Amino acid sequence: MSPLRALARPLLASAFIVDGVDALRHTDEHAARAQPFAPTLARVSEKVPGLPSDTRSLTRLIGAVQVGAGVLLATGKAPRVAAAALAVVTIPTAVVRHPVRSTSGEERRRNLVGLLRDGALLGGLIFAAEDRQGRPSLGWRLDNWRAHRAEIAEVRAELKERLKEVKQAA
Known about the structure:
Blueprint: H1 3-25, H2 27-34, H3 38-47, H4 55-75, H5 79-97, H6 105-130, H7 138-169
Helix pairs in contact: 1-2, 1-4, 2-4, 4-5, 5-6
């Protein structure tokens, strides 16, 4: 792993690990901030199996995902999956934590700054989820493998044909 990746991943992950631990330790406070979104959460949980319908359980679930995926990202274990999981939970967390529309004045400015900061972290997670460390994607490798297999089959068929011709000539 390059030195930049070795430094960048733990730095990016640290914000999510700390936030996840805070959500697990102070679940009621985090759940209270999400309470205005309870009706939306109830509708979504009807359509998504396994998703909790109460804000307290969802807060604990998101906190656990943040800690687990953050640790995976920081240690370099399944970093692309971990970054994608963090990106998915960052969006609703940012919307709940920074309600720009429902505030005004100085509080609105602080919420906007926080929302933009979370957006910047989301951008970093998108880069981390897309980072292949210089290796081609699985799709490209599969297509390349198939192309090579097809070429080998053609060469094999040509060699069998030439072998038949040589045997017939002899």
